[in-house]
Amino acid sequence: MREFLSVNNVAYEDRNIRKLPEARAELESRTGDLVVPQLFWRDRHIVGFDPEALADLVDEYRQT
User: Fold this and answer.
1) Which residues have CB under 8 Å from 61's CB, separation 6+?
2) What is the DSSP track for 12-42?
3) Structural domains of the chain, count
4) What is the mean pLDDT of the chain?
5) Rounded alpha-carbon distances, angstroms, from residue 2 to 29, 32, 37, 45, 46
């Protein structure tokens, strides 16, 4: 997911849930789970590497 976003010039904040207890707590609070990767942007929530969902997000991101 990181590489896909970088190649498409989409800015993102990478949070390591193994190193940052507050990031782990936030993810668990938001989703009830600790599955990674997850991406949150506006009303979108993508779990795992989903090329179609990510391509849609890139298109929407570029329109902003």
Assistant:
1) 10, 41
2) -----TTT-HHHHHHHHHHHSS--S-EEEET
3) 1
4) 96
5) 23, 23, 9, 15, 13
Q: What is the pTM of this model?
A: 0.84
Residues of the chain with pLDDT under 50: none
Of the candidates 63, 62, 30, 29, which has an alpha carbon nearest to the alpha carbon of residue 46? 30
Residue 61, classed as helix, strand or coil, is helix
Asked if 5 and 12 touch (Cβ cutoff 8 Å), the reply is: yes
Distances from the Cα of 27 to the Cα of 4, 34, 53, angstroms: 21, 6, 20
Tokens of 24: 């782990």
Whole-number Å distance between alpha carbons of 34 and 17: 8
